[in-house]
Amino acid sequence: MNGKIYIGTGVLLPGGVCRAQMRGKDIVASALVALVVILIAAGPALAQLDLVPNEPKSHETLWGGDSNSYTADLESGYWTVTVETGFSLEVKITVALDIGYADVIAVSGEGSGNFPTVGFTLNESAIVYIRVAENSVYGDTTGIYEVGVYSDSNAPILPLLGLDFFSFMVLLFFGIPSVIIIVCLVFARKSAKALGTISTESNYDITVLPRKTRKLLREQLPTNCPNCDGTLTYGTVRWVGPRTAECPYCGNSVLLETVEIDLDET
Fold first, then answer.
1. 69 and 88 share a domain?
2. What SS3 state is found at 101?
3. pLDDT given at position 10
4. Is this model's pTM higher than 0.70 or not?
5. Helix%, strand%, coil% for the chain, nearest 5
6. CA 198, CA 89: separation in Å to the nearest integer?
7. Is 48 among the domain residues?
8. Do 18 and 108 sit in the same domain of this protein?
9. 62 with 20, same domain?
10. According to the model, what pLDDT value does residue 155 have?
11. Which of 7, 72, 132, 175 could pair with 51 in a Cys bridge, judged by C-beta atoms 3.0 to 4.6 Å apart?
12. CATH of the domain at 107
């Protein structure tokens, strides 16, 4: 045999390899190529539907300059994708109808910065592809976030207002109380100013009784101080209250007196 090996009826090739062995290897290689092609073509159909409509997906992590992709099977209507981030993470959301993001239907913002929400409308049911990308100027923000896709009536309020959880807590515990305190101070200042402003010319109230009585009740300053009998006028006393004046001679507090005036019948 001269050291050559024959297998079955295979024809001997140079180097001792038979055609039967070559044919088997070709078949295996062709099968592997076909399997790869099938998997690539079926990729979108085999992809897991990561996001359930109106249910948030929590504890997602995003590193600087990186992105995460999701899919969701949605019915027709208006939808909102929201990302609730931590203190420093900045994100941008892209929504498309294909896995390669060539058919983009919505982008949450342009340029760098934090754009945590985007809305879009589907005219019919479809599988959408959602990409959450880190979007800082230098690509260096990292953090944990929560992502969800919501129907029009279920969208969370904070992302729609452009607030993350940290910003909301700062507003709740510092912003709102500060506004309340400022409003109270302004109101108190105006009230004190109004209380201290009293007319020195005609500080009395007139109450008109029913016509059949034909009388007037009027509050006026007594002509004399009840303590020192000094003459009192509206221009000489110092008003210390709405109905209280201070005698310029003895410093005694003088209250306004109510006077009943009869009116002639007409």
1. yes
2. coil
3. 45
4. no
5. 25, 30, 45
6. 59
7. no
8. no
9. no
10. 67
11. 72
12. 2.60.120.380
What order of strands is seen across the sheet that includes strand 126-134?
Answer: 67-74, 126-134, 91-96, 104-107
At 59, which helix (H) or strand (E)? Answer: strand 57-62
Domain of 170?
166-197
pLDDT in tens, the chain (266 residues): 454 444 444 444 454 445 555 566 667 677 677 665 555 544 444 444 589 999 999 999 999 999 999 999 999 999 999 999 877 899 999 999 999 999 999 999 999 999 999 999 999 999 999 999 999 999 999 999 999 999 988 766 655 555 555 555 555 666 677 788 888 878 777 766 655 554 444 455 555 555 555 667 778 888 899 899 888 888 888 888 888 889 989 988 888 888 777 666 54
| Residues 16-50 pLDDT 10s | 445 555 566 667 677 677 665 555 544 444 444 58
Number of domains observed in the structure of the chain: 4
Regarding whether 172 and 88 lie in a shared domain, the answer is: no
- CA-to-CA distance for 180 and 133, rounded, in angstroms? 39
Same domain for 149 and 121?
yes
> CA–CA distance from 10 to each of 19, 25, 28, 167 (Å)?
6, 15, 19, 78
Query: Could you identify the residue written with the tokens 């209280």?
Result: 244
Question: In this structure, what are the phi and psi dihedrals at residue 111, rounded to the nearest 5 degrees?
Answer: 75, -170
* C-beta contacts of 40-43 below 8 A and 24+ residues apart: 43/99
Any domain includes 177: yes
Query: Per the domain annotation, does 231 fall within a domain?
Result: yes
Counted residue by residue, the chain has a size of: 266
Tokens linked to 215: 């009388």
Rounded Cα–Cα distance for residues 181 and 189 (Å): 12
Is there a single domain that holds both residue 175 and residue 159?
no
Nearby residues of 46 by Cβ (< 8 Å), 6 or more positions away: 39
Sign of dihedral through CA atoms 179, 182, 187, 190? Answer: negative
